Amino acid sequence: MTVITGLLFLVAAAGSVLGQDLSVPSTWREPENKYNLAQRIATSQNALDSLLPELNETIGYFNVLGYWQGGNVFSAMANEDYVTHLPLYQDVVTTYLNKAFALYADYSTQYNDDALWWATACYYAYRAYGDTNLLSHAVQTWENVKTFQISPQDAASDSIPTKSFPIMGTCDGKTMAGGVFWRPVANDTAVNSVTTGLFLTLSAYLAELTGNCTYTDSAIAAATWMQTLNMNSDGIALDTINANDCSRSPATELFTYNSGKLIEGLSVLSDVTGDESWRDFMTNTVAAAVKTNVWQGANGVITEGGDTEADSDVVGFKDILIRALHEAWRRSAENPEMQNLIKSYTNVQYNALLELASTENLPWRWYSSEWAGPQPTNFTAWGQLAALDVLVSVVDINPTV
Ligand SMILES: *[C@@H]1O[C@H](CO)[C@@H](O)[C@H](O)[C@H]1NC(C)=O
Ligand SMILES: *[C@@H]1O[C@H](CO)[C@@H](O)[C@H](O)[C@H]1NC(C)=O
Ligand SMILES: *[C@@H]1O[C@H](CO)[C@@H](O)[C@H](O)[C@H]1NC(C)=O
Ligand SMILES: *[C@@H]1O[C@H](CO)[C@@H](O)[C@H](O)[C@H]1NC(C)=O
């Protein structure tokens, strides 16, 4: 009897450790949607349109914004059309995804994550418009970046053909297989969450589309690397491990987009594999990301990347988390409590953007990248960029009225 009670206690305890609290915190600011569908669509299209005058044909993306951020504007445009079932941005998205592919071979510049942002934009564009030419850009880019994912054979031989130094096959006693190098240059040692999470996500989308197990295996390897090596004890994704010596980025370097790409990839991988352990990992990461105090206050409004003076990479991070949560929401009909948590979190950001962090200046509404306010006194391309995926997601995530 004692033994059985003890076992039951252990099982219950393990369950409560794994189970996440998916309730909406009572301290969140305005988690309810207040706008009808037509208003939400008009608001999102206004912000997307506001960036069109910044397009630069010579470079293939937007003045002021970085290359990777440019790919994300096209992602938001394609996703807008996907949720509204309109081809409003098809021409500009298609033209510029093709232009950048011609200018930058395999979308590659200095960083593998740059290439993957653009390749993912091509996947979203394929999903919205059925353009198989854009899908082929995504596949070609995937094949290039695949040479930077550590395979089990690479880990066993402590070397990878695309890098000039010996690698550590294991770190902390766990295989490094599945991790993806951040930069293509042969002597750069960083394997990081954003590149691995992007590769997980693109692999899972391609697996879902084609049923080709090469993509499924790559996605599982990337997800396993994240799970066993690069999460902190609060369930938030860490940033970097150097493959030459297993040294890590500071534990305080926690960014929305690292957990974001992981969530998006796991949401697709759960559907592809039907393996509930990936869904559990996703659910835990969602709960951790929306409730952590690392990048939001008790009111739930994200404070990361609120630079109003100049564009910076970090300004573009929080938008990626919101896009990922949207994908997880879309694929979680069996978990209404988590769907409600994601919807509420997204509406908190939306209401903050409209009430605390934007100014109407016709024809545009200007957004500040500091979502907690104050309201901006000028137009900044990066403030518009940071808001895009919130504005697109709320179109879809709230009831169709
Ligand atoms: C396009 O970008 C290039 C490189 O930054 C710049 O020199 C050029 O002035 C830009 N063109 C326009 C029309 O803004
Ligand atoms: C790494 O390689 C690049 C290009 O091949 C070179 O410019 C750079 O100096 C190298 N860095 C180190 C630390 O060796
Ligand atoms: C599966 O995908 C890989 C990577 O793109 C490709 O090399 C392979 O030919 C594909 N297999 C099939 C059967 O299409
Ligand atoms: C634009 O507005 C922000 C505040 O939203 C301010 O920090 C910045 O200095 C302004 N820039 C210019 C050029 O006025």
UniProtKB/TrEMBL annotation:
This is Glycoside hydrolase family 76 protein. InterPro entries: 6-hairpin_glycosidase_sf, Glyco_hydro_76, MUG_Protein. Pfam families: Glyco_hydro_76 (PF03663). The lineage of its organism: Eukaryota, Fungi, Dikarya, Basidiomycota, Agaricomycotina. Residues 1-19 form the signal peptide. Keywords: Signal. Gene3D superfamilies: 1.50.10.20. One of its GO terms (biological process) is carbohydrate metabolic process. PANTHER family: MEIOTICALLY UP-REGULATED GENE 191 PROTEIN.
